[in-house]
Amino acid sequence: MDSTTRQFKDNARGALDDAQLQNALDKLGRGFPLKRLEAAARLPEFERLRDQAREIKNHVLDNLDFYLEAFEAKVEAAGGQVHWCADADAARRTIGEICKAAGAKTVTKSKSMIGEEIAINDYLENEGIEPIETDLGEYIIQLRREPPSHIIAPAIHLSMGQVEETFRESHADLDPDRALDEPRKLLEEARTRLRDRFLGADVGLTGANMLIAETGSNVLVTNEGNADLTYSLPRVHIVIASLEKIVPTLEDASTILRVLARSATGQEMSVYTTFCTGVRRPGDLDGPEEYHVVLLDNGRSKLLGTESHEMLRCIRCGACLNHCPVYRSVGGHAYGWVYSGPMGAVLIPGLIGMDEAAHLPNASTLCGRCEQVCPMRIPLPRMLRAWRHKLYESRRTGALGRWALEGWAWLARRPRLYRLIMGLGVAGLGMLGRRRGRFRRLPLAGGWTGGRDLPAPEGDTFIQQWHKGARGDASGERLRRRGR
Amino acid sequence: MTLPRDQILGRLKSALDRENRPPEAARARLRDRPAGLIPERGQGAPADRLALFAAEAERVEATVARIPGPAALPREVARYLAETNQPPALRAAQSLADVDWSSQPMLKVTGGTADGADNCSISRAFGGVAETGTLVFLSGPDNPTTLNFVPPTHIAVIRAADIAGDYEAVWARLRAEAGGGAYMPRTVNWVTGPSRTADIEQTLLLGAHGPQRLHIVILDDDATP
Ligand code: SF4
Questions:
Q1: Which of A41, A149, A375, A443 could form a disulfide with A259 if both were Cys (CB 3.0 to 4.6 A apart)?
Q2: Predicted-complex ipTM score
Q3: pLDDT tens across A107-127, in order?
Q4: How confident is the model at residue B128 (pLDDT cuts 50, 70, 90)?
């Protein structure tokens, strides 16, 4: 997919003005986080399981080569094939060739973020093969030719009315007077539509939530069951997965599964968790005759040992999006590429380059909620800061911003002068704003006052209060003690 | 020209300094397969485990019936279909071939894979996991995968003795029963409740692509049907 990440600021402004989108994001912010909390509260071991999940992935990253080779051997032993692909282009071509060799006209697909990353649908269409998304959300956005706006809930930005409109346009052969005024009716129409596609597809293309070295299996997690119809009905099953999806054993996969759904949707376990291994066995009545795993690097091997190393632990649960104040204000499309939210802001600059994605590391308040909820305990704020640092070092920050930062740094290294100037500034602002208690506009602070008022300072600077134990209630004294 | 495989592996090996750091810990992990932390929740006595399994399954909108043994299965199936207003027809897995359906002459029972027109299938679960009310199905000639997904109603039959506390216990049993040979069938399905989606305005709807109804029949008897 081509990115519009460069236009993050414009995208965000548009998103903030979109009442319908704001409504959807509001709902998201009230739904998933609460459910996650409830699920975590039901499982006393949840926090310790997070620690273990992190340790498993750390161990995997330390032994990535070993586990990938072990995985490959097991896939081959089960009658499958592993295709190593260095970049998106290689992966697209590999998938295209497998489809052509199978004489495929239609390919059913279950949701795969890697599929989005390499824009496989556009490629297949150009090759004359029809890709059919089967996850309900993905199906809707495929009809609308939109990218997903959330890694686990791709159509989260749409209202029911918009889905109805899309179905009326795309399913033009159906009775135009049919009622589509409830979610259930929309689901029924999509389900019926997709039934025949499932039964008639030549190839099923799925992603993988994990790959298991012990057995050569891929793991698929869905709630709808669409992935299961995707791999079990066609003659050929292609799995597309990136390198870091590997885990050592079935036990390790089970540990990670215990934190995945709880973090993602607040379910104890997703409805369908599937372990596919190789081709159909002698005597089996169903299942694919060919099994291909397209193993994609696309820049991941270069992240090992860098500041982004820990990002390779990500299991794409979406918790960091659900809890991010920036994501919840602007939605996924503003980020301009297939990933979004804190994980996107860390991942995208590494995958499509700093020039494209220069805005993203700044699209964060560094409030730290993402790290608090990340099941794999990925230090997202620290990594965002590392990107900011790099942007600054590489002189991609604007001249005015650099000048201001440098000026501030100069001042901050001279505490006496800093305090003097701050004291004067605070006193002056306090005096100016005495009457209304806030500023509606302030020179050089348009970014702040454009959307809200700046409260006028009401007394001393923080440091002055600290030293005085001000406010007469010894809060300064308390502050000081806590600071020690 | 180096193959992409060797290129990628080469890059990994040099980033990980593989020459000086043999992957001993990883080798041991694949050999010993240490289990992680197993939640307390599923670790009660068999009776508690069974009760937890049923409660967790019902929490995720499955229905659960307990019957004394395989002989009572046809009646339970007929009862369930009648009560939920469904036609008395079934696509049954070979794994239930020795159930004698003749006590319910109204029931039309056929074998094979699901064909898209079936309303209801019945298959056997290899195991259950009390922790989350999860069923575990193995694919094979006598238990085709499509039976678990294609028809809108799925009836799952499981022996009480096959309900374990945790996933790890089911993996251990799977390995043990293979007696040292390859133990993974083409497909292992964990099923926790009926299919659902919340993709339209986050409204929860059951029956997206998989079954809308999941009925679990627990056989208290140890005898195999
Ligand atoms: S970074 Fe963490 S919270 Fe975000 S998607 Fe990845 S695993 Fe989930």
A1: A375
A2: 0.95
A3: 999 989 999 999 999 999 999
A4: very high
Rounded Cα–Cα distance for residues A115 and A109 (Å): 9
The pLDDT assigned to A482 comes to 58
Contact B167 A254 (CB under 8 A): yes
Expressed as residue numbers, the domain containing A467 is 414-483
Among A242, A261, A296, the domain-final residue is A296
Q: Measured between CB atoms, which of A183, A223, A251 is closest to B171?
A: A251
Residue of A nearest to B205 (CA): A184
A137 touches chain B (CB under 8 A): yes
Number of domains in chain B: 1
**Per-residue pLDDT at A394 exceeds 90:** no
Tell me the C-alpha distance between A32 and A3, whole Å.
27
Q: Which of A50-64, A152-166, A355-369 has the highest mean pLDDT?
A: A50-64
- How large is the average pLDDT for residues B120-128? 96
User: Is A20 part of a structural domain of the chain?
Assistant: no
Which ligand 1 atom lies nearest to the CA of residue A370?
A: 3
Q: Is A248 within the bounds of a domain?
A: yes
> Could you tell me the pLDDT band of residue A279, with boundaries at 50, 70 and 90?
very high
pLDDT at A481: 62
Flag whether A440 is in a domain. Answer: yes
Give me the residues paired with residue A294 across strands: A83, A240
Distance CA A45, CA B41 (A): 10
Q: What is the number of H-type helices and E-type strands within chain B? A: 5, 12
Domain of residue B190: give its range.
47-219
CB A336 within 8 A of CB A363: no
Residue nearest atom 2 in ligand 1 by C-alpha distance: A374
**Residue B122 lies inside a defined structural domain of this protein:** yes
Q: Of the residues A49, A347, A374, which should be mutated to test ligand 1's pocket, given the most ligand atoms within 8 Å of the CB? A: A374
Q: Decide if A307 is inside a domain.
A: yes
Q: For A119-147, what is the mean pLDDT?
A: 93
Nearest residue, CB atoms, A134 vs list B4, B183, B209: B209
Where does a domain end: A397, A428, A453? Answer: A397
Residues A343 and A290 in one domain: no
State the residue for tokens 């299965």.
B73
pLDDT of A353 > 90? The answer is no
Rounded to the nearest integer, the mean pLDDT of chain A is: 90
- Give the integer Cα–Cα distance in Å for A195 and A210: 27
Nearest Cα of chain B lies from the Cα of A96 at a distance, in angstroms, of 17
Contact check, Cβ <8 Å, B184/A215: yes
Q: Does B125 fall in a domain?
A: yes
Q: Is there a domain that residue B19 lies in? A: no
Is residue B110 in some structural domain?
Answer: yes
What distance in Å separates the CA atoms of residue A241 and residue A84, rounded to the nearest whole number?
10
CATH of the domain at A103: 3.40.50.10420
Residues 6+ apart with CB under 8 A from A173: none
A/B interface, count of CB pairs below 8 Å: 257
B 32-71 residues with CB < 8 A to A? 33-37, 39-41, 56, 59-60
**What's the pLDDT tens digit per position in A82-95?**
999 999 999 999 99
B20 touches chain A (CB under 8 A): no
- Sequence-distant (≥ 6) Cβ neighbours of residue A435 within 8 angstroms: none
CATH number, domain of A336, equals: 1.10.1060.10
pTM, two decimal places: 0.90
How confident is the model at residue A474, as a pLDDT?
Answer: 54
For ligand 1, residues with CB inside 6 Å are A 314-320, 343, 374-376, 378
Task: Please tell me the distance from the alpha carbon of residue A190 to that of residue A194, in angstroms, as a whole number.
Answer: 6
- Residue B205 vs residues A24, A361, A363, B110, B154: alpha-carbon distances, Å: 18, 37, 34, 30, 17
Domain check: are A322 and A230 in the same one?
Answer: no
Contacts of residue B56 in chain A, CB cutoff 8 Å? 268
Which atom of ligand 1 lies nearest, measured to the CA of A264?
Answer: 8
pLDDT at A237 over 90: yes
The answer to whether B7 contacts chain A (CB < 8 Å) is yes
